[in-house]
Amino acid sequence: MARFLVGLLVLGVSGAVWADSFGSGDHEFAIEFVLIGDAGNSGDIRDACPDVADPYGCGAVGYEYRIGKYEITNGQWDAFVAGAGAPNGNPSDAYDNNGYWEGEDLPSHSISWYEAAQFCNYLTSGDKSLGAYVFSGDNTAPGDFLAVDRDWALSAFYVVYVIPTEDEWYKAAYYDGSGYWTYANGSNLQPIADEGWNYFGGEYEPHWAVGTGTMEQNGTFDMMGNVYEWNETLVGGGLARGYRGGACNASGGDMASFDRTNYGDPNKESDVLGLRVAAIGEYVVTGCEYALAGDLNDDCRVDLVDFSMLVSNWLVDCYADPSDPACVLKQ
Fold first, then answer.
1. How large is the average pLDDT for residues 301-307?
2. Measured between alpha carbons, how far is 100 from 111 in angstroms, rounded to an integer?
3. Is the pLDDT assigned to residue 171 strictly greater than 80?
4. What are the residue ranges of helices labelled H in the chain?
5. What pLDDT sits at residue 18?
6. How many CB atoms lie within 10 A of CB 300?
7. Is the N-terminal amide bond of 191 cis, ω within 30° of 0?
8. Residue 65 three-state SS
9. How far, in Å, are 74, 196, 297 from residue 27 at the CA level?
10. Are 197 and 255 in contact, with CB atoms under 8 Å apart?
11. For position 204, what pLDDT does the model report?
């Protein structure tokens, strides 16, 4: 499970950016998140073609949450496997395909929905079988997937890592705090391939390293293109789960809010299908009305989280080295 949270910077619409640390020793890795605020926002009800919502009303979320700044990388996935053991269970064909494209910073791919669920459980509890996704076995042999139970996981672990629901994913991509756009860069015009986003027609197929492109309106990268990203939500009937965002081999239309044509059985594995993680629970920052000295993450408390933030930037000198990653211009 995550051992600490570190606040890094503040963006306009999305709020704070955080890095959560998992594993230990040689298998330690971190995931950066952006805060998606404006809890209780209205869903997308645009109905004037081509800039329409699909599904109608999508994107309404009644709570603040965090979503991965980047797609999960090969390096993060490999650290998870080294620390917890490879995902496994039933049906066996959900766990039998390894990603083809190598490179630590490339998006992890060929991940089934069941494998993504076990990854999120590990982030939550350190155990592939314990978290929002209920399995019949244990960490060594998780067995059968049984159900999604976010409420139980929140009561047990307080901070829970999940595959984003369609509403969570859609809001993080297309919502700007007051309304919705058709594309995640805050535009209703399809972006040009290679000019910040990797989709069919550009020069970068198959995948590029996460963060290569342009930051989107809520602080994320590659919610348009690179690899499709699993959603938690059932779509299309039966056991099928949706995935959104387009991929390096997909058309520009697949990146748009109006495209809901992509879904598959949870055992599906594909070289252009990966994962972006969301986080729900008590460590979501809501802001503090008091000017409390030492409260670096604006949660009305001075605690170890604030200390971690201080330590992470200890001795950084932005005047001497403004190119340091910690030196981000104020908004």
1. 65
2. 11
3. yes
4. 74-84, 113-125, 150-157, 166-174, 304-312
5. 76
6. 13
7. no
8. strand
9. 13, 31, 27
10. yes
11. 60
Q: Give the angle 33-162-216 at the CA atoms, nearest 5°.
A: 35
Q: Count of CB atoms within 10 A of residue 265's CB?
A: 16
41-99 pLDDT, tens digit per residue, is 999 999 988 889 999 999 999 999 999 999 999 999 999 999 999 999 999 999 987 87
Q: Which amino acid is at 102?
A: E
Instruction: Encode pLDDT of 6-16 as tens digits.
Output: 444 434 355 56
CB 226 within 8 A of CB 212: no
Residue 306 pLDDT more than 80? no
d(CA 110, CA 99): 5
Contact between 144 and 135 (Cβ < 8 Å): yes
CA distances from 29 to 60, 73, 178, 202 (A): 31, 11, 35, 31
Q: Are 136 and 146 in contact (CB under 8 A)?
A: yes
Number of residues written out for the chain: 331
**pLDDT band of 311, cuts 50, 70, 90:** low
Confidence at residue 4, expressed as pLDDT on a 0 to 100 scale? 41
Instruction: Find, among 113, 277, 109, 115, the residue nearest to 206 by Cα.
Output: 109
Identity of residue 153: A
DSSP letters spanning 229-285: EEEEEE-SSTT-EEEES--TTS-GGGGSTT----EE-TT---TTEE---EEEETTS-
Q: What is the pLDDT of residues 247-258, one digit of tens each?
A: 888 888 898 999
CATH H-level, domain 5-281: superfamily: paralog of FGE (formylglycine-generating enzyme) (3.90.1580.10)
Dist. CA 44–CA 99, nearest whole Å: 35
